[in-house]
Amino acid sequence: MILGLGIDSTSIERCLNKEEHFVRKYFHSDEYKTWSTLSGSEIKAQFLSSRFAVKEAYAKARGTGFCENVVPSEINTVSGSNGKPEIQLCGRTLQTHPQNTKIHVSITHEKPLSTAIVIIEEL
């Protein structure tokens, strides 16, 4: 059974030339590390916009938006063994995430937007 569905599109252009403090505030430390190793402002902007779209889509799937129980920096998008994006949660976001669920995520980016969809499925 689907418990939640969220979708979000984020402007790649809005993520151009973001300052370090913005990335540290809204992104997981692993996402920050990856972002800091990327070269070229377009690649960095695409990375940030796609990851931020995932965070927004997850918050919408939870039905709360960002709040004390859904914190953007506690939502980490990683590449699974086959390259498929996966979400890793930590902190309060993990503690309050519904148990016995699977999170499905898909990301696409085509200028001018990055788009993500998140489904929370009850197992």
Describe the structure.
By secondary structure, this protein is of the alpha+beta class. The protein has a single domain (2-122), classed as Alpha-Beta Complex (Ribosomal Protein L22, Chain A), CATH 3.90.470.20. The chain is 36% helix and 33% strand. The chain contains four helices and five strands, in the order E-H-H-H-E-E-H-E-E. The protein has helices at 20-26, 29-37, 41-62, 91-96, and strands spanning 2-11, 75-79, 85-89, 101-110, 113-122. The strands form two sheets. The protein has a three-stranded antiparallel sheet, covered by helices on one side. Strands 2-3 form a two-stranded antiparallel ribbon. The longest helix has 22 residues, at 41-62.
Question: What is the fold's blueprint, element by element?
Answer:
Elements: E1 2-11, H1 20-26, H2 29-37, H3 41-62, E2 75-79, E3 85-89, H4 91-96, E4 101-110, E5 113-122
Summarize the structure.
The protein has four helices and five strands, in the order βαααββαββ.
Calculate the terminal CA-CA distance, rounded to whole Å: 7 Å
The helix/strand series, from N terminus to C terminus, equals EHHHEEHEE
CATH superfamily: 4'-phosphopantetheinyl transferase domain
Q: In percent, how helical is the residue content? A: 25-40%
Total of DSSP H or I helical runs spanning 4+ residues:
4
Q: Which residues form runs of ≥5 with pLDDT under 50? A: none
Based on Cα principal axes, name the global outline: globular
Extended strand count: 5
* CATH architecture descriptor name: Alpha-Beta Complex
Q: Helices and strands: which structural class?
A: alpha+beta
Structurally, the number of domains stands at: 1
Query: For the residues shown, what is the average pLDDT?
Result: 97
Strand order of the largest sheet: 1-5-4
The biggest beta sheet, please? 3 strands, antiparallel
Computed Rg: 14 Å
Strand content: 25-35%
CATH class membership: Alpha Beta
Question: Which topology does CATH recognise?
Answer: Ribosomal Protein L22, Chain A
